[in-house]
Structure prediction request, 251 residues.
Amino acid sequence: MKRIVAAALTLVVSFSLLTACGQGDETTGEVLIVGTNAEFPPFEYIGDSGEPEGFDIALINAIADKLGMEIQIENLEFASLVGAIGTKIDVAIAGMTIEEERLEMVDFSNPYYEALQYVIVPAGSDIATAADLEGKTIGVQLGTTGDFIVQDEIAGATPAQFNKPVDAVNDLLNGRVDCVILDQNPAQVFADQYSDELVALDGTQFGFAMEYYAIALPKGDTELADQINGALKEIIEDGTFDELVQTYIEQ
Ligand code: ARG
Prediction:
């Protein structure tokens, strides 16, 4: 709360400064600390610069620009993001699905992307339906919706949990897991890297539900939520959002 009051004050002050100078880079100087987990291409990954890059990073930068804020990215383990909001980080953007248990701890922005879990299998595998997943050892990223599906929805299946999806994929290549459940776009990126050995199967054939990515926010901080939702709406309306989709997801 205090931070937001300070932000509002800074906005007023910098607005008058800007008006006084008649121009300038509109920044309140406020730093929004953004948590991510840069193991999830094309949404977030470590780029050639050695820093997190990807669709989500570009999106939160565009949002911060609209709000005149600076951002600082913290690359954390995915499973620790929700708990870090309000302490280590202000918000999290990480291809994070709006999900009931998370809603007990954090709020979410309006959704910005529709997603589905995919199943990565070895080429030639006969896994094709939900029944084929029963009793299997399934690689997942710890604490993700893919992990929850394996634990809650697939009879007799054992999740092999990894902090990084790429490690689940490596275990699939080595034959230590039967398949990997991962969100569509990252699943396709990884399967494409090993197109002779792996195939990413559409989750609809397994009956998985649609998921919606949103930015995780501190619970009850409606001012920040309104600011972020407002900026997101502008970014969608002015075409920036589609440009980012073209640049990062549909290239
Ligand atoms: N959408 C899934 C979830 O919310 C997976 C997200 C993983 N994101 C990441 N940056 N590793 O659980």
In short: The pocket of arginine is lined by residues 37, 39-40, 44, 78, 94-97, 141, 144-145, 183, 211 (CB under 6 Å).
